[in-house]
Amino acid sequence: MMRLSLFHAPKWMCARTVNSVSALGHMNGTCRFHASNKRQKVLSVDNMNPFVKNMEYAVRGPIVIRAGEIEEELKKGIKKNFKDVIRANIGDCHATGQKPLTFLRQVVALCTDPDRLMNSPDYPKDAKERAKRILNGCGGQSIGAYSDSAGVRVIREDVAKYITERDGHPSNPDDIFLCTGASDGIKTIMKLMMTGKDGAERAGVMIPIPQYPLYTATIAEYNAYPISYYLDEANAWKPHRSSFIPAKY
Ligand SMILES: Cc1ncc(COP(=O)(O)O)c(C=O)c1O
């Protein structure tokens, strides 16, 4: 289950919860959440989105929580018959000691702190050129400026160029939409497949089992319906035609 941190709503946030009180008018008024001096929680487990309550993201589940506890115990000097915890649950390469790609780190560092690093002899010419290209494509030459919704144009151009070279098929930067990792992209696409209806009219999404838990979690979040089909370990995890037959709503 996801854990929510509950928060106290500031007054400006409550304006929309009170009938016919405009945000401006509300500044001099009170709302039901601030009527008494005692501030109450506006968002609680009882009134939160029920679909989010149904979400489970098992890669961060009980085993990971226990691993974290064991790590804390080791730090406190509690003796065990091992010294380290190796987190092998999600193929987290960096957490298991793999070195990050130097070039990417350098470009990110240069983009973030160009005034200090662009003249530094510690950074190679190719990383500086790449960082300059990216910064020139950002408003005010700052990586902190707003980008197009689809992402910084020059980066989309580079992505399109990469796809063109890799696939031997022209790719248009206007067709590229950057996202913050696979989960963000998958959720954006899955959102497009939802029907917006309830009960038997909800979208059914076919998912292979075993699956990455993002898929069942997102299906629960979007109030869709998971339709599972099974993969065959003995057959290189391929689905067999027969596994689709029991998959039903
Ligand atoms: C199949 C699959 N989908 C989604 C993800 C999530 O990717 P990201 O961390 O880029 O959001 C992973 C991560 O390992 C994955 O293996």
Describe the overall structure.
This protein is mostly helical and 249 residues long. Among the domains are: 103-146, Helix Hairpins (Orthogonal Bundle), CATH 1.10.287; 148-178, no CATH class; 184-244, no CATH class. Helices cover 35% and strands 6% of the residues. It is built from ten helices and three strands; from the N terminus they run ααααααααβαββα. The chain has helices spanning 23-26, 50-53, 62-75, 102-112, 114-117, 125-136, 153-167, 182-192, 214-221, 241-244; strands at residues 204-209, 225-232, 238-239. The chain has a three-stranded mixed beta sheet. Helix 4 crosses helix 6 (125-136). The chain is extended, with a radius of gyration of 25 Å. The two termini are 24 Å apart.
Short overview:
With 249 residues, the chain is mainly alpha-helical.
Name every ligand kind in the structure: pyridoxal-5'-phosphate
State the total count of DSSP E strands: 3
The amount of helix comes to 25-40%
Compute the number of helices.
10
* Integer average pLDDT: 84
Q: What profile does the largest beta sheet have?
A: 3 strands, mixed
Residues in β-strands, percent: 5-15%
Oligomerization state:
single chain
Large-scale geometry: extended
Give the ordered list of helices and strands: HHHHHHHHEHEEH
- Alpha-carbon Rg, integer: 25 Å
What strand line-up does the widest sheet have? 1-2-3
- Give unreliable regions as ranges: 1-33
Computed structural class = mainly alpha
Through-space gap between termini: 24 Å
